[in-house]
């Protein structure tokens, strides 16, 4: 009797964490289906990992449903869904355009919701299966100069935690990943890299991918990468007013560099 190859669906897989995770999982024998908006970049990652690709804008529920139907026709059982697609915001709630705020919330938060709902039949078919939601340390603390992005990650974090209890009876586990600063095309981390004393805090997509796979293999439910950044969420939870006053003393938005198109999906 042949053993079925494990199937992973990864959103935002054209670059950054998604692309690194596709390569890492492929090395461990997984078959990956990669979703993102840019077909040329998807084809490049697929060539490195032997994956299938589907162009998809996760902020569009209709687009997600259409793509999921095609994928589930080929792979009725989905062992792993990674909700990784994410875009940055241009600034704060007062400076970002209304359109950009809607895009950020639609991609970073609602994109995870639409993908989970669309691929749930496949996850249940493969039970026991797993959903990995790539949130952010920004979803655990106060980030005033990136308010819309931080809010989208707060929402994704709440969604992920609530989902864990809801999916347990269905045989689907949930892993929430909260990375710190990661240097990717859409999130270049220029401000931190410029400061020699802070460069060490910037992570690479490959390192994050390895940490995610390790967390999957160990059956973890929520991780912060690196672990020391848990202090940000703990401090905000215990002393919200104090943390708010501290970040308000800074100079929000200074030296923040984000590509004019908002960057690529992770």
How far apart, in Å, are the first and last alpha carbons? Answer: 38 Å
CATH superfamily: NAD(P)-binding Rossmann-like Domain
Helical fraction equals 40-55%
The stretches of 5 or more residues where confidence is low (pLDDT under 50) are 251-264
Radius of gyration: 18 Å
Secondary-structure-based class equals: alpha/beta
Class, according to the CATH hierarchy?
Alpha Beta
Give the tally of structural domains: 1
Q: Write out the strand line-up for the largest beta sheet, numbering strands in chain order.
A: 3-2-1-4-5-6-7
Largest sheet: 7 strands, parallel
The CATH architecture term is 3-Layer(aba) Sandwich
Tell me, briefly, the overall form.
globular
Q: Averaging pLDDT over every residue, what do you get?
A: 85
Total of DSSP H or I helical runs spanning 4+ residues: 9
The percent range for strand residues is: 5-15%
User: What is the tally of beta strands?
Assistant: 7
Quick take:
With 266 residues, this protein is α/β, with parallel strands linked by helices. The chain has helices at 16-27, 39-49, 61-74, 98-125, 147-167, 190-194, 205-217, 230-238, 240-248, and strands spanning 7-11, 31-36, 52-55, 80-83, 129-134, 172-179, 222-225.
Structure description:
There is one protein chain. The protein has 266 residues and is an alpha/beta fold. It has a single domain, classed as Rossmann fold (3-Layer(aba) Sandwich). The protein is built from 9 helices and 7 strands, in the order E-H-E-H-E-H-E-H-E-H-E-H-H-E-H-H. It has helices at 16-27, 39-49, 61-74, 98-125, 147-167, 190-194, 205-217, 230-238, 240-248, and strands spanning 7-11, 31-36, 52-55, 80-83, 129-134, 172-179, 222-225. Strand 5 (129-134), helix 5 (147-167) and strand 6 form a beta-alpha-beta unit. The longest helix has 28 residues, at 98-125. The protein is globular. Mean pLDDT is 85; it is low at 251-264.
